[in-house]
Amino acid sequence: MKFLCVECDEPMQLVTSQGPDEGSLTVTFGCPRCSRRVAMLTNPLETQLIRSLGVKVGGRTVPAAPFEHLRSSLARQRVEAFEETLETPPANPTAGAGCPFAGMIVDQEATAQRATAWSAEAEARVERIPSFIRPMAKKAIERYAESKGYRTITETVMDEARAALGM
User: Fold this and answer.
1) For residue 80, is it within any domain?
2) Whether 16 contacts 27, CB under 8 Å
3) CATH number for 160
4) I want to staple 46 with a disulfide (CB 3.0 to 4.6 A). Which of 27, 42, 77, 104 is the partner?
5) Contact at 8 Å (CB) between 146 and 157?
């Protein structure tokens, strides 16, 4: 990513960078031709995003090597990745060692799926919702029905949910 001077159409160069201070980062860029300056101020979430992407603020001192990111990712060898283990697989494969709450989430989803049934008319109506938003809308309707104590979602329940949720 580069900042271009609108007047000169020249790539701006890093002048200063300060921070992160209280999570915020300040970076100043300047045009080498007309000396115009631009400052970029990030909030704590944007600063965290920049860090998680591995962006190094301050410019490069040496040109990037071919496949540099890939090489740095492969620098640490994992010999155990190709070794066969005789351990038995976990009973719940989604509840791995990574997240201690993964099993609870899977259990909650299974319980939620069992708790609410959909009538045929309601299912047909849900299918008319655009596919990119359908899972979110369906989940919102299910939560509404669960909060009101409905065991079966009908078109009437969908209308109530629509009115209550402002859809």
Assistant:
1) no
2) yes
3) 1.10.8.550
4) 42
5) no
Q: Which residue has the tokens 């919102």?
A: 140
User: Do the Cβ atoms of 28 and 39 come closer than 8 Å?
Assistant: yes
How far from each other are the two terminal CA atoms of the chain, in whole angstroms? 39
If one counts the domains in the chain, the total is: 2
Give domain status of residue 82, yes or no: no
Question: How many whole angstroms separate alpha carbon 122 and alpha carbon 167?
Answer: 16
pLDDT tens across 106-122, in order? 555 555 455 688 999 99
User: What is the domain extent for residue 16?
Assistant: 1-58
What CATH number corresponds to the domain at position 44?
2.20.25
Q: What is the pLDDT of residues 41-88, one digit of tens each?
A: 788 787 777 777 776 665 556 677 787 777 777 777 676 766 766 555
Question: How far apart, in whole angstroms, are the C-alpha atoms of residue 46 and residue 42?
Answer: 6
Instruction: Judge whether 93 lies within some domain.
Output: no
Residue type, 155: E
Q: Is 103 exposed, middle or buried (0-12, 13-18, 19+ CB in 10 A)?
A: middle
- Is 90 within the bounds of a domain? no
